[in-house]
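Changelog-adjacent note: as of this version, every example in the card shows the full chain rather than a window. The one below runs 350 residues end to end.
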Amino acid sequence: MLRHVPDYLRGTPVFAIGAPPAGALRLDLNEGAYGPTPSARAAITAMLPSLNRYPDADGGHGLRAALAERLAVSDDALLFGAGSNSLQGLLIRICAGPGARVAYSWPGFPTFGWAARRCGADPVPVPTRRDGTDDLDALLAAARSASVVVLATPNNPTGRVVTEGLEAFVAEASQHALVLIDEAYHEYAPTRTTGVDLFRAGHEVIVLRTFSKAWGLAGCRIGYAILAPALQRVARSVQETFEVSALSYVAARASLDDHAIVAERLAENATVRAALESCLGDCGADPWTSAANFVSAGPPDPERFAERMAAEGIIVRVTTAFGDPARVRIGVPGEADAPRVFAAIGRAVG
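Full-length structure tokens:
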């Protein structure tokens, strides 16, 4: 029956994560170190008796209004999806197609290229600089012949964030291509000009964010896009009607009320991240300064390093699938787990 399937849909990889050994500390998926906030847990419990009803896809059970107020955007500029990744794929599918080009930094998140292939477009990976920072000039050059250009900041797997030149890049690139700014790790990064700032200033840009990371809702699968209302209406018409569950909506909405708790988690992440970078540096593992909840490092033998960490019950990821087999990505652990992780790193590098 594959004769009914277009050639460009055959053979695209599937992002398989697998199950870790029982009791392992999973630091390979960039998940938040902690689960849903107290208000989110209470909201999920309260919603359980109503799960025979379809979700409120338009108002998001109050999430749309609350988030629009928080971001200072109109409520019709928000589009919700099953994680920011699903929205990225949706928008690439809408604005690219067979023969089109989708440009993005590389090493980077592989689903940018996969989303291009799934609609018959050509992936255009643009090399980052040797220190892992984005080469905005090269990305801009690629954008001039592309339908879509994606800039992830902070970037996964490098952890690098764009602190200068973002507005100039968006202003020029948007004259040629749809500009997607992926800010899935926004909350962990330092104060800077963001895609949302540029959107509010009137630039033609789409910004992707998520509740998966800092908000501890990766398992709920809920993210959002900030985009022009006219494009939001088109995207909404193409999107599945009930893509986001009622539990996800209410959990995300309730999480916003626990912003002080999330702020404490972010502060802890920054402290432990700095200590993780220091530990890796002391071991000669060449860490890059990160603005996310993970650190990219270059131990002498990445595969062996990952195997040794796994033998100690700590799962990290060699970033081969992300375009860099010479490095590993290590999630920032919670403060209580940090001593165990640091000790294991010393043994794994040695």
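Structural remarks: The mean pLDDT is 96.
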